[in-house]
Amino acid sequence: MLAVHPHAHDPSHTTHHTAERPSAVETVEIDSTRLLKGQRELLIRHGNECYRLRHTRNDKLILTK
């Protein structure tokens, strides 16, 4: 399932990297089953780094570097 949600502005959340943030006010939502495709983990390349997204036995998602 793919859905688009308006981005809620949270004045308590500030960032020093505003130039790197997209200017769009909508956030795309992708169901985790679509990402994992039946697997328990997924490797995500972000720049020069590789992250591991794991689906735990307790039905939680854990993202580690």
Automatic annotation (TrEMBL):
Highest taxon, organism lineage: Bacteria
Pfam families listed in its UniProt record: hemP (PF10636)
InterPro entries documented for this protein: Hemin_uptake_protein_HemP
Region (Disordered): 1-28
Ranges annotated as biased composition (Basic and acidic residues): 7-20
Name this protein carries in UniProt: Hemin uptake protein HemP
Organism: Luteimonas soli
Gene that produces this protein: hemP
